Amino acid sequence: QALVGRAMEALQARETALRELSELLTGREMQVLQLIVGGARARDVAARLAVSEGTLKVHLHHIYQKLNVTGRDGLNAFARAKGLV
Hints:
The protein is mainly alpha-helical.
């Protein structure tokens, strides 16, 4: 039962974090965030979203600014702290 309780807490934390992020980020930025923290490379994310790598970098820059993180390492640390990965 303790395991189920922890799993439910983690799920609730993740849902809360996603709700908060959806208020800060655009829909496209949310897509980029989820793909990047899921481990996808920038080139693959750009291809999947049918945008140029330059456009993807602009999205990432906006995400970094809005979340007050520095680079991909900071973004991954933020995602781990919020239970997104």
